[in-house]
Amino acid sequence: MIPRFIANDGSQPPSTTAVPLVPVALNKGVLTRWLSPAISIAILLAALWQLRSVDFAQLVRMVPRSAGFWLLFVGGYLITPASEWIIFRRLWQLPARGFVALLRKRISNEIVLGYSGELYFYGWARRHATMVGAPFGAIKDVAILSALVANLCTLVLAMATWRLFAGTPFGFDTRLVAVSAACMTIPSVTAFLLRKRLFTLRQPELIRIAVIHFVRIVATTVAAALLWASVLPSAPLTWWLALATLRLLVSRLPLLPNKDIVFAGLVAFTVGNASGVTAVMTMIAAIWLATHLLLGVVLAAYELATERAR
Fold first, then answer.
1. Exposure on the CB side of residue 169, measured as CA atoms within 13 A
2. Membrane-spanning regions, if any (predicted)?
3. At 303, is the pLDDT very low, low, confident or very high (cuts 50, 70, 90)?
4. How many other CB atoms sit within 10 Å of the CB of residue 293?
């Protein structure tokens, strides 16, 4: 259903006049009814399957006890769903419980399949949010802008730090890093050239969303670096800059779950056991994964129980 925009006096507004979007009446069909529960089941099964291999006793022994570490961890974990809640709160008047849905969205992307979270959130929002305009188009625009801003941030960070790699034990080929980062400009330039056909939302909204994504990427990158430094303060700053660049590069790999585990594996491959960096990255990646899995089990089970009660 396409919304009909009517001016206050009942006349048709000019095409250049910006008018507020009106809510869309959505039919709650089979897709709406079963999409998010199906993905919740996938989250639950994936989490239960992966939990079988987690050695919680060893993980507990490795975990730091300092309050500062856990404040950084919790803050870093919640930055992404919080930024997305701010975005969709303005677009759809998203209720407070939408924050929990966005948590499940992130967990789905992390432990099931990249972008499966977007499908889950679309199904959830169709039932619980006041959606306006083209709902799927809004989710598409937010996801595309997230990728474009992340590509730009990765490119800038790689260009700013590639000379520092020579002083680290990571063994990066600086030319390879430069070429890999430069390749990220291709989809960004393509999206810019096709922006009038690609995006659904209006330009002011797109700019606001892009700014929120930029702040989120900077905040999560800084939080990750501070988290590493809180565990291993003796490591030089150049190491954290190099690791932050590598982490952003890994985050740009599409359709890949458990990116923190992949990142820790790359660190182990390139660094070895240099100054305990690999142990720190492995420990933090294990905490991220355990958090995803435990929250995935609890939230998916709760949603399935509430859906059945209805």
1. 13
2. 30-49, 69-88, 142-164, 176-194, 206-231, 237-255, 262-281, 287-305
3. confident
4. 21
Among 62-71, 93-102, 129-138, the range scoring the smallest mean pLDDT is 129-138
**114, containing H or E segment:** none
Model pTM score: 0.77
**pLDDT grade for 3, boundaries at 50, 70 and 90:** very low
pLDDT tens digits, one per residue of 58-75? 667 777 888 999 999 999
Radius of gyration (C-alpha) of the chain in whole angstroms: 21
Tokens for 286, please give them.
């294990």
- Convert 259-298 into a string of H (helix), E (strand) and C (coil): HHHHHHHHHHHHHCCHHHHHHHHHHHHHHHHHHHHHHHHH
- In sequence order, the β-bridge partners of residue 23 are 132
CA 162, CA 263: separation in Å to the nearest integer? Answer: 18
CA torsion, points 257, 260, 261, 266, in degrees to nearest 10?
110
Span 184-194, pLDDT tens digits: 667 777 777 78
- Cα–Cα distance, 265 to 244 (Å, whole number): 15
DSSP helix/strand/coil, 6? coil
Count CB-CB contacts under 10 A for residue 65.
6
Residue 264's nearest CA partner among 245, 285, 246 is 285
